[in-house]
Amino acid sequence: MVGVLDNQIVACVMAGYEGHRGWLNYLAVEPGQQRHGLARAIVTEAERLLREAGCPKINLQIRTSNHGVIEFYRRLGYSTDDVVGMGKRLESDDKAD
Does residue 89 fall inside a structural domain? Predict the structure, then answer.
C-alpha cells in the first residue's frame, strides 16, 4: 500500500495474509511527513483490509533496539508475543543483520 499526498508517495507498508496470520512489513513515512498521523492511517487501513480478508491476527517484527517503533505499535494496540524469532542468512550482506 502507498499513501499519496499532492501526487507524491509519502507513506508505504507491505501487508500480506497467507491464510493463517497477517503480516506487516516495511512501514515507512517520508521524513518530512512524519508525526502527522500518516503511519497510523496506513496501518489502520492495512488492518481493515486484513480483517476484511478474514485475518485473525497480525504479526510484525521489529529490531529490539528500535524503541521508537516498538512504542508506536504499542500505541496502536500491538503487544509482544511470547515467541522466538529465527532467521538464517543465505547470502552474506554486511549491511543487514
Answer: no
CA angle 54, 39, 12 (to 5 degrees): 75
Question: End-to-end CA distance of the chain, in Å?
Answer: 25
Structural contact between residues 77 and 43, judged by C-beta atoms closer than 8 angstroms: no
85, pLDDT greater than 70:
yes
* Secondary element (H or E) of residue 25: strand 22-29
Residue 57 grid cell: 491476527
Q: Are strands 22-29 and 8-17 parallel, antiparallel or unpaired?
A: antiparallel
Domain of 44 in residue numbering reads as 2-75
Q: Is the pLDDT at 51 greater than 70, yes or no? A: yes
Residue 22 lies in a domain: yes
- 34, 5 contact by CB (below 8 A): no
The whole-number pLDDT of residue 64 equals: 92
